[in-house]
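I have been asked to look over a protein record a colleague put together. This is what I was given:
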Amino acid sequence: MTPRLADLRPCFQGVIPSFIATCSRDGEPNVTYVSQIEFLDEKHVALSCQFFNKTKRNVLENPFASVHFYDPVTFESWNLKLRYLRSEESGELFDRMAIRIQVIASHTGMAGVFKLIAVDHYEVLALEPVTGFLTPPDPLLDCAPTAQVAPGPMTEVRGLQAVSERIARARDLDDLMSGALLALAEHLGFAHSMVLLADDATGRLVTLASRGYGPGGIGAEVAPGDGIVGTVAQQRRMVRLSGVAAELRYGRAIRGAVERSSGAGGLAPEIPLPGLPDAQAQLALPLLAGERLVGVLAVESRDPLQFDEWDEAFLQIVGNQIALGIDRMQADDEEPVAPAAVASAAHARGAAASKVHRFAFYPSDDCLFVDGEYLVRNVPGRILWKLLERRVRGGQLEFTNRELRLDPSLGLPPIKDNLESRLILLRKRLQEKCPDVRLVPVPRGRFALEIDGRAELELKEGS
């Protein structure tokens, strides 16, 4: 029995490329790939139109078309017989399909070239299975064992409860982000995830928490419009991509054609971004507090069919909670405390002198190096240099968020300065590059700078 079109949702994810066949008024056929097929209802689908090519000319002359697509799990094949209805160049559907193409275009340096021109609406006249090209299943080799379900399965509601509890009980911003990602991995199988926060001072997104990638990813930056994370931040819209490798191959093929026809002078280079180099499925959503962008939550997988509509809805709920929690944590969270402690000279000299760490700061671009290796830059670099100066030259051991906010030399924005996120970045970069120097929270809104050994400071003026 032929299934309903809604039962073939995996076929619409683009894991295996689909084909569209059309014919001109004079009977000349044309077959080409189609980038996106969007299920609308049992009688209608929408196809992406990225170039005013032979396919579009044909359906304007002769409105009938045939689309050939595949189930990426069973490899069953289907033909859709269609009749062209109309095109639209704006609206919710257009925006949803355009943003997926925009992500691939930004990855391959084709932004502004590889883009959606229109969404073409078609009426579904027939859905027909293609038979005869698959051999019958082998009764021994092709019968997969039945999956064993572990006792007491974690339901969706219980999973959401676990994530919400981690967010509600978070002690600080770092605990909130890392705890939420841990709960997503443990209870719901999102093994690779990251949270990037918006930095108003630089206009970029900075990775402050990740799960499943190993060390080294903290501090990675993404510019608005770059890749899935940058595009989500720029457009303030959720994006889900399946079959990412195939989409990138398609985008690179278009890039190659453009380079051959007009050269690569106007094309941007491909952009390496944080995440899995071989990701096959990606889902990212903006973290919004009202109309303000707080950051981006992104998950990905090597399984091209890992994410579906359920994941979109679930992560939207989780993302809303994370965004509100981050916004609350980034507010002025200081408690009334005594003035920051200042160490005596004797105490400062009493530190172990067996280790020496040499810090060099370049004010021309706000870069800070430790022992000849890059550590951090921009506002976090200025903050750490200020802390080191006060610790080494003035003997100050403890600091408050408030005194940093009131220091005009740091260049913190007057509203929503993201100070807590910048301190998290510093803390993690020090753990990775120089664990002998630590930022240690004391009470809320207060922390200590601890140094094992001695720190030597060098200001690289004019560099």
User: Anything to note?
Assistant: The longest helix spans residues 309-330. Confidence is low (pLDDT under 50) at residues 145-153, 332-352.
